[in-house]
Design brief:
The complex is a heterodimer of chains A (181) and B (127). Chain A has 3 helices and 9 strands, in the order ββαββββαββαβ. With 181 residues, chain A is α/β, with parallel strands linked by helices. Chains A and B meet through helix 1, helix 2, helix 3 and strand 9 of A and helix 1, strand 1, helix 2, helix 3 and helix 4 of B.
Chain lengths: 181, 127
């Protein structure tokens, strides 16, 4: 619960009110289940590129980890249990002019506290369209792209990331908004 | 895995001259990997783009991400959205909470996990 510190009148946060330590919780959880700890990606250097054009003239792309609805692959609806059959293993692209039906039953979202009932909470295409129409940035790229989620860093680094880069280059994008599910 | 995947992809794009921003809910995973720009929403996983059925929250979340694109001074720039999921933080206790798992439940989860992996492997190999 929150309390107020009299000297500042600022609300004091509860001790546990911190970003959830997902790596630690996942490690502890899988140890209890009897599995070896997972080694998360971790690098010394981080690349950085300044936006090469003002945002008002920039072409912006969207990359998602959400999956296109796959008929016959089991329950993918709001609140569906984890569904490995709904996963995908190849980069996909679709027009940003379309209204895609993308789901997230194939990933470990927080099923206790949210239900994935509103696509706009994990796939901001509608909001991006509005921002582009309002002139907040130059233009939305003609396609958005889907990135397969993979336990293997190597699959992402050697196969999927280069393919996503190739498609972004093909569409001559200046900036990319990436949204995990 | 979603947060790690997009982190790896953002790094690749950035190394090739394309500016990126990640909108996400798993702060530790993204920062552990190391990315150029990150708009963190302290929301349950699955709401990286804002609160469900709340266009204003979604627009605000996107706007903060766009501002990061424009103004981050260098790599590993994280901004935390001021939006809160609930007034208190009780929801944060629940994700993979081991105190609620009986031995029977653990066996059940292990079986589910193995089944899920087998299904995923078969699908991956068929792709």
């Amino acid at each position: 619960m929150t309390a107020v510190a009299p000297e500042t009148r600022a609300a004091v946060a509860a001790e546990h009110d911190v970003p959830i330590p997902y790596m630690q919780r996942t490690r502890d959880y899988y140890l209890v289940l009897g599995y070896d700890p997972y080694r998360w990606a971790h690098f010394v250097e981080v690349p950085f590129t300044s936006l090469r054009t003002p945002l008002s003239g920039a072409r912006v792309a969207l990359i998602t980890t959400a999956a296109p609805l796959q008929p016959g692959a089991g329950d993918q609806g709001p609140g569906a249990p984890y569904n490995a059959s709904a996963k995908f293993y190849q980069v996909y692209s679709a027009p940003t002019e379309s209204v895609p039906d993308l789901r997230i039953s194939h990933v470990a979202y927080d099923r206790l506290h949210t239900s994935a009932a509103d696509i706009n909470a994990y796939f901001p295409l509608a909001r991006l369209r509005e921002a582009a129409a309002a002139g907040r940035f130059g233009a939305l790229a003609p396609r958005f792209h889907g990135a397969p989620t993979n336990r293997s860093h190597r699959a992402t680094l050697q196969t999927d990331a280069p393919e996503l880069l190739r498609r972004c280059r093909e569409d001559a994008v200046d900036a990319v908004v990436l949204v995990p599910s | 895995m979603c947060h790690q995947t997009v982190s790896l992809v953002a790094r690749r794009l950035e190394a090739d001259g394309i500016a990126t921003v990640i909108m996400g809910c798993a702060k530790d995973i993204v920062e552990h990997c190391g990315v150029p720009r990150f708009l963190f929403s302290d929301f349950p996983l699955g709401n990286s783009a804002g609160r469900p059925f709340d266009a204003e929250s979604q627009a605000q979340t996107l706007e903060l991400a766009l501002r990061l694109l424009e103004s981050a001074p260098g790599a590993r720039t994280t901004m935390q959205s001021p939006l809160r999921w609930t007034a208190d933080a009780e929801w944060k206790r629940d994700y993979l909470d081991l105190t609620k798992l009986s031995p029977e439940k653990i066996a059940e989860r292990r079986q589910e996990f193995d089944q899920g992996k087998a299904v995923a492997r078969a699908k991956r190999e068929a792709t």
